[in-house]
Amino acid sequence: MKLKNKHKLSKIPKLALVILAATLAATPSSSQTVADSAVPNTGLNIPEELTIFGKNDPNVRRATAVVNGDIITGTDVGQRLALIVAANGGEVSEEEQQRLRLQILRNLIDETLQIQEAEANEITISPEEVESTYRQVAQQNFKQDIGGFETFLRSKGSSANTLKQQIKGELAWSRLLRRNIQPFINVGDEEVNAIIERLNASKGTSEYRIGEIYMSASQETAEQVAVNMRKILEQIRGGGSFVAYARQFSEASTAATGGDLGWVRPAQLPQSLAEAAVQMQVGQVVGPVSVPGGFSILYLIDQRQILTADARDALLSLKQLSIAFPEGTTEQQATTKASQFASATEGIKGCGAANEVAASIGAAVVDNDQVRLRDLPAALQDTIANLPIGQASAPFGSITDGVRVLILCGRDDPQTANAPSFDQIMSQLENERVNKRAQIYLRDLRRDAIIEYN
Q1: What's the domain count of the chain?
Q2: N- to C-terminal Cα distance for the chain?
Q3: pTM for the full model?
């Protein structure tokens, strides 16, 4: 939760150092004349006047930056970039990739400083902790089974190690803040009670679940930062992963969770963000929106009424019938088979008859009694919300996935909506204050760092 005019659930603006982008332009050929006395007798028949063809690859095992003695190579940058490209289905232009490289380098410098500080404070992250989060990222961000995820990353030009290093940095910094800052944060009971009173007074008004990508900007850098964010916005609107861009580039503390701010009311946001949020539709992405200290891209994940039961929280008991299309099925053949499937399922009278119909047409059956309406794809929510008990939906699917219907067997509507507990609100306030201190902490690390660029 954010408090008005205290925007940032911020982690820490990613390093605002000026990077000298000195691209090493090796000449196609360079002649070198070697004096006779300088050439030892090697027996290798090396000519005295020779030409070196080609050039060294600056992205392989060559330091891009050295941070307090720790090397960040072009390979590190390239593999981290490949994570973003993979999360966006490879749809990132070469021009955009070049711009992303500079931002990734800044992120890697911050990450290195955070890991160094955690190690200086004798904080260690076990391989088991990293592996657990690694599995979650594989499934949630990349929709990959853990067994083939490492192969998938290598095929995209990345590696498991670069992702695990990022995870280690996030975990180490979080633990460092919990140990060195959180114990000194105090939230009074009266502050929490005041928020509860405001929630009760706001019952029935709208609140929004928002994703945010925040980037800091000074007066001198504002124009360039805005241009960069517009390019990110284009990528997301073109099908890119908001979560992937948030994890890599957002400078707010929510970057680790894909930019998810959770549920907030307009009054908790800076005015510019509040004005944007109330005009957005669920699923819409807008930006860059000017905020104190920088710019934000907003993604409206969901919307609901405060302390009011939401019909989309209804728990459904569903039965799914599906048929697959054999490989090589044409669109016309699929349309014919889908029409036959629709005719067979539209007459289903209750879930008790569904299994018999499925057997007669060779359809697979899947039962699930704990499906929340809001968790269904948006295109299906309205359809299922208005479906009578025992009736089947219209068929849906594709040539690749086959065709299927959902039959509504039962529905439990929510009775009330619970307010966040006293402890939940206190935890949110504590997190906000920890994040503000963290911003100062990293700023000091940057000031003391010795950073060399190649």
Answers
A1: 1
A2: 41
A3: 0.51
